[in-house]
Amino acid sequence: MARPLQTGLNYFPLDVTFDQDDKIALIESDFGIEGFSVIVKLLMKIYSEGYSYHWGEKEVKLFSRRTGVVATTVSDIVEAGLRWGIFDLSLFYDYNILTSRGIQKRYFEAVGRRKDVPVVKEYVLLSEQELEKYPNLNIVSLFPVVPAETNHVDSDVDSTELMSTLTTQSKVEESIVKESKSSSRSEKRSDDSDDDLLHILQEFESKIQVPTTQIEKQLKDWLIALDKEVILEAIRRTHLNGKSFGYLNAILTDFKQKGVHTYEDIAAYDQSFKYRQQSFTNHMPKSEFLPEWAKEGYTDVDDPVDESMNQKITESLNRIRGKRQH
Question: How far is C-alpha 150 from the geometric centre of its chain's CA atoms?
Fold first, then answer.
C-alpha cells in the first residue's frame, strides 16, 4: 500500500532576528512573551499542514488547550496578527485561513523537490511571475469550471415532458429580461463605485506601489466597508510614514474596529488616539516597596548582645555536653 503524500513540513526556517521584526514587536508589546509564543506555535501548525491553516472556533479551543493560553487571548493575538499583517486579512475574511506571502514563499521553496504539490488557486498570494519559479506546483481551483453540456432533445422524449421543458425555458427567459432591466438601473450605481475604485488605485500607485491583483481585490473589499475618502486618508498616512500595504491594511482594520466609516469620523478617531497616547505617556509606574537592606546607602548594624540570654545559651550547651559524656 502506497504511503500518503506528505503536504506539510517537518521543520521550517526561523530567522534569529525574528523577534526584531516590527510586526512581532507590536505583538509582544501588547501580549508579552505569550504573544510571541502563540505566533511561533501558529507558524509551526501552519507549516505542519502546508502553507495555510483553517482558523475557526474549534481551532481556537484546541489551540488554547494545547498551548495553555486562554482562548480569548489566543483570539486577540490572532486578530492582532491579522491587523499587523503577519497573516493575510483578505484570505482570512474570505476563507477563514491563516497564511501570508512569506509563509507561502518559504513553503514553496521547501517543497521544491516534491512532485505535483497541490496548491489552491484562490489561496495563492504570489504573482504568476513568482509562481513560474515553482514548476512542481499543481494549482487547482475551489471552483472548477464545469463544461457546458450540448443542448439536445432525444427523439423518444414524451411530448408532455417537452412542453413542460419549453414552458420552463420561457419562464426563465422572461425572468432574464426582467433582471436585465433591473441591472440596467443598477449600472449607474456601479459606475460610481468603479470610479471610486479607480481613484483609490491611482492614489495607491502614485504614493505607495503598483497594486497587485490581490491588493486591488482587497482595496475593492475595503471600499464596500468604508467611504472612499477614508481609504484615501489611510493611503496618505501610509505614504507619510513610508510604509507598505501591510501598514495601510492595519490602519483600515483599526478604522473599521473603531467605527470609522466616513471622513468626518476620522477627527473623533484622531482625538481618541491622542487621548490614549497622552494617558499612556502620563502613566506613572507604581513605586516598588524595597526592604531597608535593598536601599542605597544601607549599612549593616549588629544588634546589641543580651548578656542574660547569652548566659542561658551557654548553660544549655554545657548541660548537653555533660549528657553526651555520660
Answer: 45
Give the type of residue at 324. Answer: R
Distance CA 86, CA 88 (A): 7
Q: Which CATH architecture best describes the domain 191-281?
A: Orthogonal Bundle (1.10)
Instruction: Answer whether residue 86 shows pLDDT above 80.
Output: yes
CATH code 1.10.10 region(s) in the chain: 191-281
pLDDT tens column, 289-315: 555 555 556 555 555 556 776 677 777
CA gap 27, 34 in Å, rounded: 9
Contact (CB, 8 A) for 39 and 27: yes
Cα angle, residue 322 at apex, residues 319 and 326 outer, rounded to 5°:
140
Cβ–Cβ < 8 Å for 58, 94: no
**Per-residue DSSP letters for 117-159?**
EEEEGGG--S-HHHHTT-TTEEEE-SSPPPPPPPP---TT--H
Question: What values do phi and psi take at 120, rounded to 5?
Answer: -80, 125
Contact of 176 with 203, CB cutoff 8 Å: no
pTM for the structure as a whole: 0.47
